[in-house]
Amino acid sequence: AIALIRLPMRYVGLVFIVSSIAMVKFGSDFGSLMFGSFTQDLPGAVARVFVSFTLGQMLFHAMQQSWFPRFNLNSAALLSVLALSLLAPVTTLGLSYDFSFVFLFAPLLVAMGAQVEPSAALRGLYHQLGRLSYALYVVHLPCLKFVNWMWSAIVGAPIADTPLTGVAVALGFIVLVAHFATALFDEPVRAALNRWLKSRKPSSMPKLA
Question: What is the pTM of this model?
């Protein structure tokens, strides 16, 4: 990440193209973009992370340069797109949906969300969701698998058999783990990296969000 944020945009675009080709190849072979749970699919997970990171960089640059169209949207419109993007559990679109999410839905959500000004009542909630967003991304799948295993052991049935209660418990557990991961690891590490970057070259080093 430290190397990528210092690259000129043309090289970021090149990394995006190469990693996209690799991700499509690994995804086609694997049948899904749900990489990273096992050592054998780790290269696909690395390619997917590079795709998402560089695409985010290019999107941020485009918005800074006013190349990206502005949306006159409110939170309801943003939540509608989010709901559309979460259709995977109730569809059989498979790999085509996975590619659509990475290349279309996720960038659209980022671009739209960056232009939505939350109401005063929701501002605190949005701030906390943004603060926890990376930890939520990292921990949600292992936490969900752990809760599903515990739920099956205690209740005698998977979460899918009791979706409302099971999902509520899983969501609470995921948010709790993400909070501690952010407070105890992510924020201290980012603070240390910011101090190191500032000491190296204050005039040109970007601050980590």
Answer: 0.63
Least confident of 23-37, 50-64, 74-88, 163-177: 74-88
CB atoms within 10 A of CB 52: 19
Tokens of 189: 């590490």
User: Would you call 43 helix, strand, or coil by DSSP?
Assistant: helix
Written as six digits, the tokens of 135 are 């930890």
The residues, any chain, with a CB within 8 Å of residue 192's CB and separated by 6 or more, are none
Q: Residue 90's pLDDT is what? A: 46
DSSP state of 68: S
* Phi–psi pair at 206, nearest 5 degrees: -70, 150
Question: Are 142 and 96 within 8 A, CB to CB?
Answer: no
For the segment 62-82, the average pLDDT, to the nearest whole number, is 68
Q: Residue 145: which of 163, 159, 161 has the closest Cα?
A: 159
**pLDDT tens sequence across 142-159:** 888 888 888 888 888 777
- Gap between the Cα atoms of 73 and 115, Å rounded: 8
